[in-house]
Automatic annotation (TrEMBL):
InterPro entries: Beta-grasp_dom_sf, MOCS2A, Mopterin_synth/thiamin_S_b, ThiS/MoaD-like. Keywords: Nucleotide-binding. The keyword Nucleotide-binding applies. PANTHER family: MOLYBDOPTERIN SYNTHASE SULFUR CARRIER SUBUNIT. The lineage of its organism: Bacteria, Bacillati, Bacillota, Bacilli, Bacillales. This is Molybdopterin synthase sulfur carrier subunit. It comes from the Bacteria. Belongs to the MoaD family. It comes from Jeotgalibacillus haloalkalitolerans.
């Protein structure tokens, strides 16, 4: 099971601060597609971090990784 931490307004969309996906391994692209399908989170503006480093769509996520969804942030 892949556990995904959610931050900011994504927690509200996901119904909590963690999403669980019943897979042992998948690409970041597949993870974003699944999150969009299950939780209606628009993946085009969300960044994914694996083990505290930003990930690319082809990077692999496993059930042993620390995964986070990070929404766009603005500030001044």
């Amino acid at each position: 099971m892949i556990k995904v931490n959610c931050f900011a307004h994504l927690k509200e969309l996901a119904g909590g601060n963690m999403i669980q996906i019943d897979r042992k391994e998948m690409s970041v692209k597949e993870l974003l597609e699944e999150v969009q399908r299950q939780y209606h989170i628009q993946s085009d503006s969300v960044l994914v971090a694996i083990n505290e480093e930003y990930a690319l769509p082809d990077d692999q996520v496993t059930e042993h990784d620390t995964v986070a969804l990070i929404p766009p942030v603005s500030g001044g």
